[in-house]
Automatic annotation (TrEMBL), chains A, B:
Belongs to the HrcA family. The keyword Chaperone does not apply. Negative regulator of class I heat shock genes (grpE-dnaK-dnaJ and groELS operons). Prevents heat-shock induction of these operons. Keywords: Repressor, Stress response, Transcription, Transcription regulation. The gene is hrcA. The keyword Repressor applies. This is Heat-inducible transcription repressor HrcA. InterPro entries: GAF-like_dom_sf, HrcA, HrcA_C, WH-like_DNA-bd_sf, WH_DNA-bd_sf, WHTH_transcript_rep_HrcA_IDD. Residues 103-321 form the Heat-inducible transcription repressor HrcA C-terminal domain. It comes from Thermoanaerobacterium butyriciformans.
DNA sequence: ATTAGCACTCTTAGCTTGAGAGTGCTAATC
DNA sequence: GATTAGCACTCTCAAGCTAAGAGTGCTAAT
């Protein structure tokens, strides 16, 4: 049975008020605050219907109603769409010409979003994994150490210090540098595997034994770059919500945010749009009284990471969806601008 | 008036018990739990004396006593020294040869220390500022972008992406690279200032206008590296302490940890040893019910950053001092090992 | 100098109670 | 038939009260 218009309006009213007050909402409150043209008794009946249909719940008899996960879902899917028509188009004025590492920029945006929304933000940082290697280079530091610098097409940079057992002379170094540069540039990181190593091995000829070791080391360090990088900002914002005045619940929340496995899975982008997961819709029990709104961010059209706003299911979906939308668009734009080739 | 032996033992007993229970300690409890050979009445009198002398305080009449900041200070200075005789000597077994960025290593140790101690750890990350530049290099990315890579004597590495208004040709690039390399290597970062810029300008000759701009950009990005980098780990551990069951207090604590100015000042190393600041000894009002135990960490003898364990004044100074001591020694050793030149 | 004893103080956990908010049902009304 | 007024009933929660418990400080005895 589809919801008639009055039921929709009542559901919306309950959600709106509950988002604000975190208190169960009674029929009289709605009759007073919203001009629905019917008395509280009618609303009372409608609310009983909505509860029976699963959109509302009652914490205990003779308390008001609160929205259920299903109620929020209906709200997000059916009621919210009217408000989300606006598109944001942001024009960049001017740019400084020095850019921090990409991670710093992403963190800055996470911080901004957290302070605007007063929510906890979780971020999957840009990963090097799926990207094409644009530049790979080794640089000598001293006789037995070198820096491995990798930069991908989308602008992610990583550097690692490699310490060698034996000293390396400058001719050999030059040779090695050219070799890995030729072999690895333009490849995706995951393509840089054993086959490639064998190829390098073959070409290195006389210096083989030594080159062999170094190549292994380099491949190793590339593997290290794999580890997903998670970041969070504004965790303590959870304490602003009265439902987290219980210390134990707060502690559980902190532990959840620190749980790399769950966060990683939760932040995995499923499609290109903004996704909302409400309470028990999550496959993780730990998330059942939380909602997350997540959005990807991109460099030149390629998804490089994910942003999420996480908080109690009672969240201001309307406002937050707008804000994450704006923010991820802007971040993508900034990153793309920086890493765009020959832009002028 | 110096404390006689019995008073010392009673003070120690109060502190020990209070660290464990977070409850005011009464005379009877001490008589029962510690075998001092006197009755509770005697202890009662002694405690009254200790209170008058400022080592103990009473939350309200007819409650037990809790240690004052002065009490803790006395404990740390006079009682603890017996326990701190042990020295740790750690031998490294073997090392993998790829090292993550220095920051990652420091963070790993912070995490470890936090999980061992169940306290919040604040860290001043390695700074490039006071260190000699060992290697500075620009690398072309594409026609209008380059990477600036700086490495200091102690092994701190930073890289920045620089985006140029105009394209740069490879001859000019080579020239510029040699120039900044010659001029900046071996200098301390803060010495790389306007004077140097002028020098570079003078030598650049015909290409001057262009080089000028790039040099400015480079100096700018060096300035960016200045910003102190603070890091914290295990913030939520504060919720383990009953004195932070009050949500408002917890929130204040979180804000304090996020306050870069205060944390930066608090973590400024004053001397080479382990420092303990107890409650109101701090110049920051925000720290008055907190204590911090801090220790520096070094690379090849040079201080590069600071570690701090922060928590309620009721902390297990004895255990924590030992643990931060061990940890910072080990970290210094690891870092020095990695960045030691020609170690084999 | 130490200790037993005791009156006194202060806090806190547990209990009771009444106000307030809200429901669901019934009967009257539009 | 849908809406509404009215009312009995339910449940929560804050306020006030009380008694138990922990601890002190003082006095007088050892």
């Amino acid at each position: 049975m589809p919801l008639d218009d009055r039921k929709k309006r009542i559901l919306e009213a309950v959600i709106n008020d509950y988002i604000l007050t975190a208190e169960p909402i009674g029929s009289r409150t709605i009759a007073k605050r919203y001009d629905l043209g019917v008395s509280s008794a009618t609303i009372r009946n409608e609310m009983a219907d909505l509860e029976e249909m699963g959109y509302l719940e009652q914490p205990h008899t003779s308390a008001g109603r609160i929205p259920s996960d299903k109620g929020y879902r209906f709200y997000v899917n059916n009621i919210l769409e009217h408000y989300l028509k606006e598109t944001y188009d942001y024009e960049f004025e001017s740019f400084n010409e020095v850019f921090a590492e990409i991670d710093e920029i992403v963190k800055k945006y996470a911080k901004l979003l957290s302070s605007i929304t007063n929510h906890t933000i979780v971020v999957k940082m840009p990963r090097i994994d799926e990207n094409t290697i644009k530049r790979i280079q080794i640089l000598p530091v001293d006789s037995n150490k070198l820096i491995l610098l990798v930069m991908t097409e989308s602008g992610i940079m990583k550097n690692y210090l490699i310490s060698l057992k034996d000293n390396i002379d400058s001719n050999l170094f030059e040779f090695l540098n050219n070799l890995i540069n030729n072999k690895m540039t333009g490849k995706r990181k995951r393509e840089v595997d054993k086959t490639l190593r064998d190829e390098i091995k073959k070409e290195s000829g006389s210096a083989m034994g030594f080159i062999d070791k170094i190549t292994d080391t380099i491949l190793n360090s590339l593997k290290q770059m794999d580890e997903t990088d998670l970041y969070s900002e504004g965790i303590s914002n959870i304490l602003n919500f009265p439902e987290y005045k219980d210390l134990f619940k707060a502690k559980t929340f902190f532990d959840l945010i620190d749980n790399k496995d769950i966060m990683n899975s939760v932040l995995e982008p499923e499609d290109d749009s903004i996704e909302v997961t409400i309470g028990s819709e999550s496959k993780f029990e730990e998330m059942w009284d939380l909602s997350i709104i997540k959005s990807t961010y991109k460099i030149n059209g390629e998804i490089v990471g994910t942003f999420g706003i996480i908080g109690p299911t009672r969240m201001n979906y309307k406002r937050l969806i707008n804000e994450i939308n704006m923010m991820s668009n802007e971040l993508s734009k900034v990153l793309s601008y920086i890493y765009q080739e020959n832009k002028r």
